[in-house]
Amino acid sequence: MNQDKEAALAAVRDFWNRRPCNIRHSAKPIGSNEYFDEVEARKYFVEPHIPIFAEFEKWRGKRVLEIGCGIGTDTMNFARAGAEVSAVDLSEKSLEIARYRAGVYGLHNIRFYEGNAEELSSFLPIERYDLIYSFGVIHHTPRPERVIEQLQRYCLPSTVLKVMVYHRHSWKAMEVFLRHGRGRFWSVSKLLERYSEAQTGCPVTHSYTRRSVRELLGGFAVDFVSVEHIFPYRVPDYVRHQYRMVWYFRHLPQPVFRWLEKRVGWHLCVTAHLAKGIGSGSGNGTGTS
Ligand SMILES: C[S@@+](CC[C@H](N)C(=O)[O-])C[C@H]1O[C@@H](n2cnc3c(N)ncnc32)[C@H](O)[C@@H]1O
């Protein structure tokens, strides 16, 4: 890995160690049952498309690999539904919380792995999975295409890949452009990199179009892309756990809001499977499908 990318990866790791994703979703003491319940309730309240996309119940008795589990909200739900889960993250702090959370809920069907998903096979045994799931992760790593290449090694032809990455042609991108663009149409992706996570200061953020996500997914055939999520709340209220919509969304009829979300939402939720002839022939796989 060249030095720039190595430095970027170290910055990504530091960032998520300093502030694991969604750690402030509850004001209760971190680690308590109530804390984890509140984190989950808030996450799925603000992003109700996640359980629909993940289809937790569908994976009962199946093997699930989650890339970038963070503090494990989705991980717990796969495990609760009865899947055998392998959960990977770069951030040891996030993993520490996720591990503890699994203990709090008495979930013993999760194996946690710390490491860089761009080099997945250097620390995760090659086994086949029924589902590979990654929500809001791959766009935060310096070389997303490396992660995708690695994932192929864990696939059977029947493996389902579900990934969420950020959508460049989105309401969010337009907001960033209007606030910070000053007419620089040519640099939308740079602006998004810099400002999309402005409140949190995440060091790496890529974004994709429907077309470029297909290019990213290279060896996978895309079955379905769904566009979701416009964040409608006023940020100063939201950080105080209050949900007041910004004025222009407050009066928008719900069906119109949903219509907008499905076109210019910030989340590109992609379901795919391995393209024919790639990746499934080698290794000491133990997949169940
Ligand atoms: C926005 S959080 C999402 C966490 C979780 N998927 C969720 O939805 O709550 C991004 C996560 O990706 C992890 N991550 C970023 N780059 C990674 C990499 N190269 N390998 C493994 N994990 C990575 C971060 O440590 C962080 O926990």
Radius of gyration: 19 Å
How much is the average pLDDT? 90
Task: Report the biggest beta sheet as strand number plus sense, adding barrel if it closes.
Answer: 7 strands, mixed
Helix % is 25-40%
N-to-C terminal Cα separation, in Å? 34 Å
Name the shape in a single word. Answer: globular
| Tally of strands | 7
Q: What's the SSE blueprint?
A:
Elements: H1 3-18, H2 33-46, H3 49-54, E1 63-67, H4 73-80, E2 84-89, H5 92-104, E3 110-114, E4 129-135, H6 144-151, E5 155-166, H7 171-180, H8 188-195, H9 210-216, E6 220-228, H10 235-238, H11 247-250, H12 254-264, E7 267-274
Parallel strand pairs: 1-2, 1-4, 2-3, 4-5
Antiparallel strand pairs: 5-7, 6-7
This protein binds S-adenosylmethionine.
